[in-house]
Structures are given as C-alpha cells and as structure tokens.
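Example (one chain per record):
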Amino acid sequence: DVQLVESGGGSVQAGGSLRLSCLASGATHMRQFCMAWFRQAPGQEREGIASIGKDGKTTYADSVRGRFTISSDNAKTTLFLEMNSLKPDDTAMYYCATGVYCANVLSPSEYDTWGQGTQVTVS
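Predicted structure:
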C-alpha cells in the first residue's frame, strides 16, 4: 500500500511563499500513479489545485495557476508544491493524493490514497 506524508506547511504573510513536500512510500513504481495536491478550508469542499499525470502532464486550478507549481522527482517518490504570492484565501489544510485511473485529475473522487495533511495559514 502507498503511504503519503506531507510537510512544509506553516504560517506566512500575504505575498510570501511556501514549499510543500509529500513523501510517498510503499509502492515499487510510483510512476503508475497520478499525483495531486488538494486543499480544504473549514466549511468548504476539498478542492483539487494541481496534479501531475502518469505522463508528467501538469494541470492547475484557475485559483492557483501562475502562482503555484507542482513537481516531483523522477521516481515520483516526492511530490512538491511551490506556492508563491500567497493570499489569505489560500489558507487551508493541504493534502497530497495518488490515484490510478486519473480521468479527471482535479477531482477528489479519482484518488484513493491520501496523506494526513499539512496546514497553511496566510495572514
């Protein structure tokens, strides 16, 4: 089974930057999965914000395009999210996830393994 552990969250002022990491373990070939970052603010639905497909193609939600960058190492054992120009609206718990089918890469229903989350607070 795949296990995911996020890190790198914290508190930052508006306009600042953070880099989140997600360490994946438990699978021999992580390239068989698509991987993504989601976030969820209190009282709101979980939102897909960035993904990397099996072919390496990246996809971004409109809310973060141009400010956030998703990347991974070659083996996909670590997923990153570089977040720049942060806004108070970016405050949320951030999760990484992996999925196999990956038809709608920003939909939570496509992903079956989730990390525990890391909190990002922008003031």
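Caption: The chain has a mean pLDDT of 93.
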